[in-house]
Every structure is written in structure tokens, then in C-alpha cells.
Fold each of these.
Amino acid sequence: KSPDSPTLINAFQLIGMSSCLDLSGFFEK
Amino acid sequence: WIEVLIFGLARCFVQNSPYKHLYYSYDDLVRLSNTTPFTVNEIEALRELYKKLSRLIIDDGLIHKEELQLALFRMPAGENLFLDRVFDLFDEKKNGFIDFEEFVRALSVFHPHAPLDDKIDFAFRLYDLRQTGYIEKEEVKQMVVAILSESGIQLSDESLEAIINKTFADIDADKDGKINKEEWKAFAVGHPTLLKNMTLAYLKDITTVFPSFIFNTEVDE
């Protein structure tokens, strides 16, 4: 791996960003 | 006999009411409180939230998938992979709606004081789309495609493959091409940010968010 190659994100870090998995919407007016 | 008559009338009213699903005796509340991180007052406050959600579309005292979707996204329709999974996990009895007890039990996992193992387990079941006991490559790919489409981001097939391969290189310790619960647990413990959405700070102050519970409370805590 060259020092310039970009660091890949783990899929679960991406998936965890889904707004659909954020249940705080329950509490917002 | 007046007491018997009043009790009988009250029972009849509850049984015929569209809100009978919302009727929980003091003993029910205590039982729920003893098996979750919530106090009785917090469960009563959650009942106020539940009431609000259960009348968003159909005023029948139950939470249907469209109501869950409306509550979370402000729109009642449209396919959504993650919403389907969240609904399925809340609807433990698999009868097409979320009753109050299911709601409290599922939300208890999101309590700041809930055991980490419960959060890890819930997230595993959430991501095990086909419920095979393993998170497979195809499932991870499906979820990544869903999140990219949700965010309007385009990614080449090669980049997508690279992300999936990196993910399995990170987590799939026994290299069998699927993630089992132990592998998921080991990874999640080392990367707590993955479980960020599994904690709802609101749940610690739920009686402040829904103070109206005080009008129907069974106990002064």
C-alpha cells in the first residue's frame, strides 16, 4: 500500500450514518 | 356493590375502547419497569410518546409502519430498507403493528444505561437482513447501496467492492465470508462509534420531554 492511497471507510461506519437509523425523530416536535 | 358496578363499567369501557391497547395497570407498569432501565414514571412518559405516535395516521392506539415512517422521516410512504428492519425488530410478535410493551422493550435497548451487549445484539439483528444468524456480504452491499442512495452519492462498483472487502478484512476473523455474532461483537467493542445510533440521550430525560404523564400517573416517584 502506498502512503498516498486513501484510507477506505468501513461499510458499517457508512451504514451507521443513515438517518433512518436515528430514532431521535420520535422526540422532535 | 357500587364499587363493583364502577369497576365493571370501567372494565367494559376499557375493553370496548379503541385505546384498550394503551390500558396498562399499575402492576403492568411495575413489571415493565422491573425488566427495563425505565422507572414507572418514565414508562408513563413513554406512554405519552406512544399515544402521540399511535395516532399519527390511524387513531387506533397502535403504531403501524407508516406511522413509524412518518415519525422518523416526516413522510408516510416510500420504500426504505432500514425502516423495514427497525419496524421488524420493534414488532417482536410479528403481527404488523408495534404495541406499547414492544415499544418500551425495544426503546429500552436505546437507553443510555442499557447494557452494551444488548445494543451490540440489537445492531447485529438489524444488519442481519435475512435473519440467518450471520451478516453476509450481499447484505452489507445492499445496506451500503441503500445509504448511498439515501445520501444521493454515486460510487463506482470498484469502490463499492473495495469498501465491502475492507469491511470483511476488518471484521471477518475466521475468513468464512460472513460475519457471526462474536466477530461483530469484537469489532463493535473496539469501535464504539458504530453504536452511536443505539443510544438516545432523550430517554434519560423522558419525563421532562413528556411532562403531561403527570396527569395520568399511578405513582409519585
Note: Chain B has a mean pLDDT of 88.
Amino acid sequence: VVSGHVYTNHWAVRITGGQEQADRIAAKYGYINFGQIGSLEDHYHFHHSRVVRRAAYSLKGPHSFIHMDPEVDWAQQQVVKPRVKR
Amino acid sequence: NAQSDPSVIHFNDPKWSNMWYIQCGDKSSRCRSGMNILAAWQRGYTGKNVVVTILDDGIEKNHPDLAQNYDHLASYDVNGNDHDPTPRYDSRNENIHGTRCAGEVAAAANNSHCIVGIAYNAHIGGIRMLDGDVTDLVEAKSLGVRPDYIDIYSASWGPKDDGKTVDGPGLLTKQAFEQGIKKGRKGLGSIFVWASGNGGRQGDHCSCDGYTSSIYTISISSTTENGNKPWYLEICSSTLATTYSSGEFNERKIVTTDLRHRCTDGHTGTSVSAPIVAGIIALALEANLLLTWRDVQHLLVKTSRPVHLKADDWKTNAAGLRVSHLYGFGLVDAEAMVLEATKWRTVPPQHTCSQMPERRSRYIHAGERLNSSITTSGCSEEPEQHVGYLEHVVVKVLIVHPRRGDLEINLISPSGTRSQLLNKRLFDSSNEGFRNWEFMTVHFWGERAEGTWTLEIGDSPSKQRNPEVLGNLKEWTLILYGTSQNPNQPYSAQHSRSRMLEIPAPEEILVESELEEEDEYNSPCHSECGDQGCDGPDTDHCLNCVHFSSGSLKSGRTCVSHCPLGHYEDIASRRCRRCYKGCEGCVGRSAGNCLSCRRGLYLNTLNSSCIDTCPPDYFADENQRQCLRCHDTCMRCLWSADRCTACSRGYSLAGMTCVPECTNGTFFHLEEMTCSPCHSSCRTCTGPGKEECIQCAEGYLQQEWRCVPTCSPGYYSGEAAGVPHNMCYRCEENCLSCSDPGTTCTRCKEGYSLVSRTCIVNASCNNADEVFCEMVKSNRLCGKRLYRQFCCRTCLMNG
């Protein structure tokens, strides 16, 4: 937990093996796979509707096990980045 | 300072005369030096076929000044996860920013709406990504939208400028940048333009904004009409160039399109400058589509100039370039950009020389300066990493410190040029220090890299601190980017097709002549010698050959099992005969017998000849040295079948891609990659919905964002300039039906009554005495909407 951060219910994950593999792992932990992130190969956008949309800390639950799945190279819960218009 | 003749170009757009920053530069103008945009237009460059997108809170795609150039293929809604970037409308007009930026780039010209964009014939799109939670994933997605189609991404946002934030692109976004640079624009590299770090607050330093400090982004700052530093501008060593923008209340502003089909001069700050440069780069890309992302930065460095911009830190670096922390290399020059672009030669490949980190931990004493040096050869021992001439310099630091805002960091090059990487920040009381934060500077552009670099860190407490807790420079790394050769020397003929036929290597030179007769010899012969024996042990002593004879008397005759390159095997005479010039492999002497070509030439499969320029519909494949056919949608292409420079009939060029020209009543459907029908009420559209019309079908009128058969109550029908159909204009307030031209109401809403053809609130008043009514009528207050409640009904009803 980093103070001042706002945690969302979106994840970025890196899974090799293609879309189907990603879909399978998403379903396994209750996520929905929103597809590849732009042109970043093997990187996927997962969304978990049962995790609160914004939270001051990273909630734990069955969805957290995705971080430990051997088939997941990397997973990052998305944090809101404050942005201002110039 | 090219003096363009503004009288030559005049558009009927209502705000044309307010666009001082485009017409700047002529004798009568208050601003002395222009950005020479008019001159670039006069040379014929208006951004045709170039695709620009705005990363922001959306774009009003049917704004009358944007619709013509709007490109839905350059748009996406990351917040809504669909293809429609239309902003979310709300009472506070939160999402006006993207539409304002878009207008600066590509508002259509001469259509009697608002303004003229810098690249008024470019494709313009929008990526809606600020109107929701912005995360690393959202930014990465936004930067990765259709990199082979979109040429330029313009962003006018960044981390908070509260003077205490240090933030930048996350892991995914950094990868998206690198992916865009390596693969975008089919290998030429996506162009990322970024507004340098301001946000309406002071006391910040934009080196703490990781987007403008990236070597992949072109960071742009602003100056006012009089060349002064705007109050909001932050100093920054990564700023590359500058444009005009808003300034003090008495200085003229920038005008652009606004949400709800309007026009505004309320667009300010460096948010203005990034889209202006995006538009100027679009003009340069039109002049030369093959510019790489580094070519564009070199062009900006070469053509921007200080003119009358006032800064007390202008200096000349060792490459003779004037540069400042406020304005980079100075005010952009559109005409110079397009002129240079037309004859530009690709700069040599980028090399990266990363020095071993300096890991000796050093205390930073309050009130003192710490110097730490690294000496480098510019990686001259590694050809692939050797940096002889500098472009960007990055310093990555690991500093522990009790109050980060007290630090100032400078970098001094071997040539003695000094660049301030960080200035003190009064509001930054963070004790996090800098954890592998990367500072970037462009101030050493063109200088030589080798020598001793000095990092100078100052610590001057702005508040009382515990003297026992010292700052500590744990580690710093110097990363040099640049080229091994001088980029100003001609490097590659990639752009110029004027390559001469290469002179063959000596071993290939053969003079055409008949072979001499053989001599006698008795000792053992070489295995290639034929039955007539030899006069020596080697193959050039044979009297006849088993397989083939090669060479001539002058260069020496020899027997070979296979003929050398540039020759074919004449089975009948058992001799190696020379191919036609330019052929490397052939089956005969004539030009049409080639099988492969020498370097620099390409095999034309139509007639098996070697040529240096492929015919139309073909491109020169470097690997196979062959002319290969373009994609069937391409009429002309370069480097690969799908990098088009001209399209076949029925397709139009966007970037280097050919997309179908959908006829009226259809739109290009992305998923199906075909033309799909619009809604029946649309003549042209961006999608199947009835709210996605651009122009209305015959018999329909445009009302707000739809095409309707008849105007709704409260609207009247009227002509509209520049569109083939009528528009439904709103009657005056509170009026239910009116007749043309809209000022004569015929029926009012409930609670209002019609008096002298206007709708007056049904209130009567009790102070309508003679004097008051006289005042009301003599001043014609009832004709002004604001004053209508002044007893108008009573006064007018009573004559």
C-alpha cells in the first residue's frame, strides 16, 4: 500500500500463450479479459467486477491469487495517476 | 526571417483576423518574429494525408470546423471502450480540452467556421482517455492506438505541477513508447508531442514530469506575443522548442474551436503549444513522409531559433546551437521545417552509450555543492554503441535526502556547457529523495561526447532542518544518446535515389575479350584441367578445362567448376561469359537474362532486367534485391508491399495506408474493413447510428447532432454555408415557433406571451408608471434579452 494511492479494479497482466490462455486464466480468478493492451504483446487488460472500483488500499481476496499463478509472468493492479491539463 | 505576404492568403473563417500568431511577422504586426506558417502554406504544405490524434478528454467530431477533417480511424474511446471519442457533456464543461487542442491542429479552412488549423488538410482524431481514472494501463492503451496509421500523437497533460510531485510514465506506458518508436509508422517511429510541464501553478520544475523528460517525446514550451516568459512557464532542460501562446491579460490570445460547436480564445498555456507543433510536424511530414522520429527532432533543433524571445539564460553550446531552459532551441519555424524536410537525409542510426554507474556514496552537505565526475570515451571501443555526436543526455540518480525540494542539480559537459537538470522546489518537502529518477537534457545536442562529465548537486535548505541528517548521492549513471558520425554530413542515400552503379570489387573486373590459345606443359595438372593437359600446376595453367574457363589473357585465364558472380556458364563453349551490366546472376548476355542483381539494383521480374528504380506498383526489396508488387490497394509503395505512397482507384491515402473511399451513404467499418451503410437520414457519416451523420441526406435538415425531416418546435429552418442541406436553428429563447429568419416568434412557451414578436414573461409589474415605461421603451430594453423582465409586458401592452 502506498499512501495517497487510489487502487482500481483493473489489472495489467503478462501471460504468454495467446488470447485463449489469457481468457482461461482470467476466468479462473473471476476476471474478465478486456483484450491486449494496445500493441504490447502478451500484455492483457483484466477487470474484476467484484473488487471495489476505487479503494485507498489494495483489497485482498481470491482474485489476489492471480499474482501467484505460475502461468502469469507479471500482474499489476492499476493505480489512479493524477493528471492535469496543461 | 522569411517575410510572407499575408495578403496572398485570406480565409473567410470568422476568427481568421484574430489569428495573429499565424499572421505574425509582417511589418504591421506587434509580434516581431513569426512561426512562418503562412509561408509553409504558400509552399503548398497543409498536412495532406498526415494523421494526427489528440490524447485528451475527447474530441467533438461533428464540430462544424472539425467534421471535414475528422478521421474515425485515428480515434478511440479508452474511457468508454468504444470507437466514439465524443466528449462527455456536462454543465461544468469539464471536457472541453481535447476539442480545443484538435482545432489548433486541423480546423478546416475557408468554411466560415471559427478558425484555420495549422495543418488544415490533415486527418484529425481524438483518443478519449482523461475523462476517467487515468492509470498506467489507460495511458499505454492510448499511446498504442493504431501506430501504423496514426503519425503524430499530441498530449497536453501530465503529472500535477504542485511543485512536489515526481511522476512519469509507468512500466506499461514506457513499453508503449518504445514500441511506438521502434515499430510505429511502419518502422519510422511514432511522433509524440508533449506540452512542457505547466498546469497553472508555480514553483515546479518540469524535469519532475517524466513524459517531457523522455527522449521519445518532443517537449514544447510557450512564449507570449511579446516574446516574454508566460507566468506559468517552468524551466526545463528537456524542452526542445517553443511556440506562441497566451500571456498577460493585455497580450493577445490563441483562438480555437470549443465544445458545443463554438469558438474560444480561452485556450491557454503549453496546452496550446503542443498541438501547434503537431500541426507544423504534419506539414513537414507531408513534405517528406519518410522522416523518422529522430529526423523530426533534428529538424526542430536545426530550424528553431531564439529571435526576440527574452530569457537570461540563452547560451551557445559547443556545437554552436543557441539553447535556453525556457525555450529550448527557440521559436519554431514552419517554413524552414518544410524546406529542410524536402531535402533531408536520414540521420545515422541512434547509438546508446551507457556508462558504468558511479557508485561511490557521497554525502551532500547543506549549504555546499557536491561534484561527481565520470570520464567517458563515448563507448568508442564499441562500434555499435559509439556516440561521437550527442543528441539526448540522461542522468539517472539515486539520492537519499531529508527534503528533496532543497536540491539543485546541474550537469556540465566536457565542452563546458552547463545544463540545469533540477531547480529548487519550495513546496517539495518529501523525504523520498530520487529513486533512479531520470533527468534528461537536450542542451548538449551536437557536442562531442567523449571527455569528463561533472554532476553538480547543490543543497540549500529553505527551512530549518536537522543538521545531522545529510543527503546522500548513492549512485548516478550517465546515458549518452547520439550518432557515431556527424549527422550533418550526408550519411545514407536512403532518401535519394541517385545512387550510381557500384564499381565492382577488383576481383570482379573482367575485360571482355576472347581467350588466348593454350601453351605446352608436362608435370601433373590441376583436377580442373581437361584432357589437353597444362603448363603448370594451377588452374590457370590448364590448356583446356573440365568445366569452364574464366578470365582473359590480360587478367589471367583459369579453369573453374562454377563461374564467378556476374557471369553465366556458356555450356557450348565451356566459358564463363559476362552477364549484362548490373546483373549478378544470369542465364545469358542480354539485359533480359538476369536472375539476380548487384547491390543497389533490383530485378524487374517483368523483363528479368536489373534496374535501380522499380516500375509503378512495385517496390524495391532490399533483401531479395528484387522489385516486388505492392499491395493491391497501393498504386505506389516503398520498402514493403503495404507502405503506400499512392493508392489505387477507390482508395485514399492516410499515412502510408490505403483505406477504401466509401461512397456517399456509407462509412468505412473498422471491424469488417468494408464500407457499411449509414443511417438513412445521413448523406455521409462516421458510423451506423443516426447521431453519426456528418452531412444529412436529401430531404433532411441538421438539428443539433441529428438529421431530421422537419425542424422540431422551437427551431426554424435556414441555410447553412458549406453544407448541402439546411439547418434547424433554434428560435429565440422561450419561443415555440418562429418564422425565418428566426427573429419573429409566432408562438411562445407557456408562461410567456407574444408582444411585438418577442416572448415576454407573463408577469406584470406594478412599477410600470409613465416614467419607468418611457425609460424602458426609449432605451428599447425589451429588445435586449437581458432586460426583458423589466415590465416589458405591462409597458408594451399598455401602448
Note: DSSP finds ten helices and 47 strands in chain B.
